[in-house]
């Protein structure tokens, strides 16, 4: 698949804390897939880039916000069920890691927990 900008879309597997893959999301960047996950209400997000051993860690949230005035009609219609509001996802990347083994169950389970966010440096 090729994205509109001409960038290739990649697949990312959502990993739970037990090290099991529980879903697949697509995006040109890991953040694109993480936004889709966060919009489903999941806050601690661990994504494995398919075809690699790379893990991406995100902290996500979603909140109800008023519909923008310039939103398409289908969004405005969908918002009527939520009193004129829609869910907006937001994610923050916490870090990355490399798996030691391709098979998820052979890796250390601590890799599948989102690390604590470090304080911002000035």
UniProtKB/TrEMBL annotation:
Highest taxon in the source lineage: Archaea
Pfam families noted in UniProt: MC1
Keywords recorded for this protein, A-Z: DNA-binding
Keyword Ribosomal protein belongs to the record: no
Gene3D superfamilies attached to this UniProt entry: Chromosomal protein MC1
InterPro entries given in the database record: MC1, MC1_sf
Any GO BP annotation: DNA protection
GO MF annotations, alphabetized: DNA binding
Coiled coil: none
Record function comment: Protects DNA against thermal denaturation and modulates transcription.
Protein name, UniProt field: Non-histone chromosomal protein MC1
């Amino acid at each position: 698949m090729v994205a509109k900008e001409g960038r290739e879309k990649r697949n990312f597997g959502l990993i739970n804390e037990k090290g099991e893959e529980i879903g697949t999301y697509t995006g040109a960047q890991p953040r694109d897939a993480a936004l889709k996950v966060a919009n489903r209400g999941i806050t601690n997000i661990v994504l494995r880039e398919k075809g690699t051993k790379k893990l991406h860690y995100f902290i996500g949230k979603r909140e109800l916000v008023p519909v923008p005035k310039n939103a398409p009609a289908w969004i405005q219609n969908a918002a009527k069920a939520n009193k004129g509001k829609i869910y907006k996802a937001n994610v923050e990347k916490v870090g990355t890691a490399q798996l030691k083994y391709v098979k998820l169950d052979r890796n250390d389970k601590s890799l599948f927990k989102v690390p604590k966010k470090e304080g911002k440096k000035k």
